[in-house]
Specification:
Helices cover about 40% and strands about 20% of the residues. It has helices spanning about 10-20, 20-25, 35-40, 55, 60-70, 80-85, 120-135, 150-160, 175-180, 220-225, 240-260, and strands at about 30, 45-50, 75-80, 95-100, 110-115, 140-145, 165-170, 185-190, 195, 205-210, 225-230. The strands form two sheets. The chain has a seven-stranded parallel sheet.
Amino acid sequence: MITSPANPHVKRIRSLAADRRERRRERMLVLEGVRLVADALDSGARLALALYAPEQLHATVAGTSLLQRLQSLPACYPATPQVIAAAAETVHPQGVVALAAWPQIAPAIPGLLLVVDAVQDPGNLGTLLRSAEAVGVAQVICTSGTVDLYAPKVVRGGMGAHFRLAMEQDLLWEEVGARLATVDHVYAADPSARMPYYAADWRQPSALLVGNEAGGLSDAARSHATRMITIPMRGRAESLNVAVAASVILFEALRQRTLGRS
């Protein structure tokens, strides 16, 4: 039983959570919470390290099930709730914190691509990944300037999407252009556009470009788009949150791919 918050395992988890350069060097991500750790295991991930508090996990059925799994795995150590609190980022940790290697998932190209252009908010990027995985996006491409795909808040927001979704980050637009060459249509979401998103033909290999929360699409993103699309609105709001807007469009793409354009 690990009882000291000064334990080296705790320090390693906290260091990886705080330092993007260290995450990149070790190619590790931090997992926190019962659902996320269980989801990672269900997706075939191997935990490089896990700390868990048995009494906290016993509080729920899902936690008890995860506890039974962790007890039989290597590099998984019981710890006190105080140790878990020291290792975790959330205010009320659920009794487990773990490390896993970055998943390596091949993109299903050609298909539907999501290009994220300099989105800064971790919660927004996590939601984008969750929606992308839900609709079967072939690959998520993040340009240079986008928040770190493997930041803990992004991982928590993605709710396991990291283990089932092909993704790349820090791509220059020359590299993005090479990925876009695999699709027939490149649609860019812009509140000032006239073409409604549902008028686009999402049945063919396509890409959706979404821009920064404050500045919108960059000039480079606009130069790669073949059509600009928008979400018609009746209210007084000028635009939607980028994660909400992209989710609306992505689920229309799924609807068309499933039922057609009618």
